[in-house]
Design a protein that fits this description.
InterPro entries: Se-dep_Mo_hydrolase_YqeB, Single_hybrid_motif. This is EF2563 family selenium-dependent molybdenum hydroxylase system protein. Helices cover 19% and strands 27% of the residues. It is α/β, with parallel strands linked by helices. The protein has a 9-stranded mixed sheet with strand order 3-4-5-2-1-6-7-8-9.
């Protein structure tokens, strides 16, 4: 039903990947664009991780790193092509019906409402009706996943979601600029005071007991105060390797917004 409609999603992190997963399952053709060195934390559920691993599977669906020449074959094989294309130049050749800005930069880096017949942005930084046709709310709370056709998303609170009473404590941040060296892996059980990684020579400790739910790629350069990891106090390994409740909620909002906009948007 939707296979003739191509969607480009900018960004291959966990919330983008939750969206890509739902749209691909719903019958759309999905392409993802990424940076040369993506810095997603929840790599185990991020299609963009194929930039490092060449292929990556999330809940039974596989992404494949490719160039422009490989897109068609990968789509025909039922997989998701991922291109290193920070400025999304591929849109000029593919001419997608829909573009989704899922970079989650908290600001609009380059997306224009004229980039495609339907343009959707995730989270703050966009104005519906000006930059994009619709925005999906990404702040946790009553409005998570809500579609905004007029106005803006809620301002970023900078407060991590509450998990078992922990917010800031469960998030690991870089103490300085430098190269990250991981001492543990996603899925490892850790205790308060354990060294999770070092940035250059400075250790990053966990403040709580739990399981490593997310950890940035080893060996890449990161900025000071950048999020590098996520400790989940629930210690359920399934949460490390499956799409989150937040991701599914946002993905549902994107799908609903597309269906609404398709009713009123003529496509070739």
């Amino acid at each position: 039903m939707f296979s003739k409609h191509c969607i480009i999603i900018k960004g291959g992190g966990d919330l983008s990947s939750a969206t890509a997963h739902k749209l691909k399952r719903s019958g759309f053709q999905v392409i993802i664009t990424e940076l040369e060195q993506p810095r997603m934390v929840r790599r185990s559920v991020s299609f963009g991780n194929c930039v490092y691993e060449k292929e990556w599977t999330v809940e039974g669906m596989t992404s494949v790193l490719t160039g422009e020449e490989g897109i068609h074959g990968i789509l025909m094989n039922g997989k998701i092509p991922v291109l290193i294309d920070p400025s999304c130049e591929i849109r000029k050749k593919v001419k997608p019906a829909i573009i989704i800005d899922a970079i989650l930069a908290k600001k609009n880096l380059s997306t224009d409402i004229n980039d495609a017949p339907i343009v959707i942005g995730l989270g703050p930084g966009f104005t519906a009706g000006q930059d994009v046709h619709a925005i999906i709310e990404t702040n946790r709370g009553h409005n998570l996943g809500r579609i905004i056709f007029d106005g803006k998303a809620e301002t970023n609170t900078h407060v991590p979601g509450d998990v078992c009473g922990y917010t800031f404590e469960r998030v690991l941040r870089s103490p300085e600029c430098g190269i990250i060296k991981n001492h543990v892996e996603i899925g490892d059980i850790v205790r308060s005071g354990d060294i999770i990684c070092t940035v250059d020579t400075t250790p990053v400790y966990t403040k709580i007991d739990g399981i490593v739910r997310g950890l940035i790629k080893d060996g890449i350069y990161i900025d000071s105060d950048y999020k590098v990891g996520d400790i989940d106090p629930r210690r359920d390994s399934e949460y490390c390797y499956t799409i989150s409740d937040k991701g599914r909620n946002i993905a549902g909002g994107v799908l609903e917004a597309i269906l609404i906009l398709l009713k009123n948007t003529p496509l070739a």
